[in-house]
Structure formats: structure tokens, C-alpha cells
Design goal:
By secondary structure, the chain is mainly beta. It has strands spanning about 5-15, 25-35, 40-50, 60-65, 70-80, 85-95, 100-105, 110, 130-135, 140-145, 155-160, 165-175, 180, 195-200, 210-220, 220-230, 245-250, 255-260, 275-285, 290-300, 315-320.
Length: about 325
């Protein structure tokens, strides 16, 4: 029996409990799973060389022994003002062999919309509490082909908020060349456009393929919403759905802003509650005139054309005031 690697490391994170059934969003549970795919027991020390997201973090876990097919789980609680982490670590076996690992993990905290954003394509002060930079040097991915020349060519800032009725999302894209006029709604993903997919499944009872995904861009000279997949009780594209969206261009910046009623994302009529999880993926596409050139994503799944929410960002819906 052959294995690709004798040891595999998976990393994940989640906000810590506040002791009252909610979450402490300034404290993070960081979890490392080390799996042994070798034919025999592997023993040694696990060293965390760095943990981006926590300043100067290093740690040593000695005398770890993992039987063949087994797994060792290391749990850490760290104080951090971010929810995006990158781990650099090594496993040093008893015979001195070093196996290096790098891994990224993240979650999102969606703040409550105490000031209701207006989906007008203008990101006004107070509408959103934070912006997440999506660029080539971040934990998130940017997919690009030559001659992509960096973040001035294409990058983005993502903002979001929620209340009991709606999810609000704004994406401010830096784009040196606008090319957004798609010949058809279904082809908008090949042009400058915005995509979103998500599922509200706090009890983890739905299949990962149960989700709603949409495409928003320009076709026929008009802003167009295209349904890619729909498992919600109300289609977002219905005229009476309550969906609102806008696209605004200002020099080298394009802003996509949407107000999405929860009923167009929910698979059943239920309340959306504080401190529950919404699984989300967001993506913006770039075309400079010669086909799809780049795509910046927050949460995996859309770019690959997949229909599963397994790699989506876990977004915790918070009513706490966070920075």
C-alpha cells in the first residue's frame, strides 16, 4: 500500500465560546489534525514555526506518537483580532527526519446591520463595519492568467452585514480595464461580474450540494441577475423576491452591491438567528477583452465550478460590536 505522504496536516479554526451559548469573537480555537498514513507508528515533535494572524506565535508539542492510520489533534486557544490564519509547522520524527507543513484556514464574522446598507453601489460611511482585502498576498485565492500584472490589474475589498431580513454584500473591485458587456446572462461569468453562493445550515442537516448560487453582471446594457442554482423557498430572480442590486463604475473601481432577502437563501421558512453560521462563497470575475483573465474569491467552490458548500467560508452572524 502506497501513500502520497506519510503525514498529512489539516487546520481549522472557530471563535471561542463566550460561556453563555454564544461566541467570543476576540478569542479563537485553532485546531491542527495530524494524520499518519505510514505503515507504522510515527513518533516525534510537532513545531509551530509561525501562525500568521497571531503575532510572534511559536509552540512546541513534544513526544507525539501516532499509530498507522491514526490521528493526533492539537487544540490551541489564541487571542486574535483576525479570523484568517496561515500555519507554518514541522514534524521532526525521532530519527531526525523533518516534514514541513503549510496550511491556511479562516472563518468570517458578519456584523449586524445596525445601520442598514442601501444597495446603490456606493459604500457609505457606517454601512459596513469592516472591509476584507482580497489580493494575491492574502489567505484567499486569486486565480489569474498572463498577462495579469498584480493587484492594480484586479483585486477587491469585500464587505458584508446582516439583519433578520437580509444579507448585505458589497464588493469594491480595482480593475484597470472594464469589459462587462456579456452577450447573454448565462455567459456573464466570462466577463466582469460578481458571483455569490451560500446556504444557511446551522444544524448541519443539509447535504453539501444544497445551496443557492447567483451571477450578477451586465447584459443587453442592463444589470442582470442570473440564477445558477436554487434550493431556496423563494427564487432570488422573482420580481417580488425583494432582491436589490447595483453596479457602479468610477474610474478604475467597480462596486457590486446587493441586498439579498434571507427567504431567497433559506431552504425552509425559519428564523435567522444570532451566533449561527451561514456558509458563503463570493467571487468577482475580470475580463480585459480577451476572455476571463482573473477571478478573486472568498471561499472556495465557485471558481472550480463545483456545486458543494464543503469549502465555503463559515460566516458567524454576530450582534456584538466587533472591530
Amino acid at each position: 500500500l502506497e501513500y502520497k505522504t506519510p503525514l498529512d496536516v489539516d487546520v481549522r479554526c472557530e471563535p471561542s465560546s463566550d460561556g453563555n451559548g454564544g461566541y467570543d469573537y476576540g478569542s479563537v480555537n485553532f485546531i491542527v489534525d495530524i494524520s499518519n498514513n505510514a505503515k507504522g507508528t510515527v513518533s516525534g515533535d510537532f513545531i509551530i514555526n509561525s501562525l500568521k494572524g497571531v503575532d510572534n506565535y511559536k509552540n512546541l508539542y513534544e513526544n507525539i506518537s501516532i499509530p498507522s492510520g491514526g490521528r493526533e489533534t492539537i487544540k490551541m486557544n489564541v487571542l486574535s483580532d483576525t479570523s484568517q490564519f496561515r500555519l507554518a509547522a514541522s514534524f521532526i520524527t525521532d530519527d531526525g527526519t523533518a516534514v514541513d507543513f503549510n496550511g491556511s484556514t479562516s472563518y468570517a464574522v458578519c456584523d449586524y446591520a445596525y445601520t442598514k446598507p442601501v444597495a446603490d453601489g456606493v459604500i457609505s460611511d457606517g454601512e459596513y463595519s469592516k472591509k476584507i482585502y482580497l489580493g494575491s498576498d492574502d489567505v484567499v485565492d486569486i486565480h489569474a492568467v498572463d498577462p495579469y500584472v498584480g493587484t492594480d490589474d484586479f483585486s477587491a475589498k469585500l464587505s458584508y452585514a446582516w439583519d433578520e431580513d437580509n444579507l448585505y454584500v458589497a464588493m469594491e473591485c480595482t480593475d484597470n480595464k472594464l469589459f462587462d458587456e456579456s452577450p447573454s446572462a448565462s455567459a456573464m461569468w466570462r466577463y466582469d461580474s460578481f458571483q455569490l453562493a451560500g446556504v444557511y445550515d446551522p444544524e448541519e442537516k443539509l447535504n453539501s450540494s444544497v445551496l443557492t448560487s447567483v451571477l450578477y453582471g451586465v447584459t443587453g446594457g442592463k444589470n442582470t441577475l442570473e440564477m445558477v442554482k436554487n434550493n431556496a423557498v423563494k427564487a432570488m430572480t422573482d420580481e417580488d423576491s425583494g432582491f436589490e442590486g447595483a453596479i457602479q463604475r468610477n474610474e478604475n473601481t467597480t462596486v457590486y452591491e446587493v441586498k439579498i432577502p434571507w427567504k431567497t437563501l433559506l431552504t425552509e421558512d425559519t428564523e435567522v438567528l444570532e451566533d449561527t453560521v451561514f456558509k458563503l462563497a463570493v467571487l468577482a470575475n475580470d475580463n480585459d477583452g480577451a476572455g476571463r483573465k482573473a477571478a478573486v474569491q472568498y471561499g472556495e467552490g465557485i471558481y472550480s465550478g463545483g456545486t458543494s458548500s464543503e469549502a465555503f467560508i463559515k460566516m458567524y452572524l454576530s450582534k456584538k460590536i466587533t472591530n
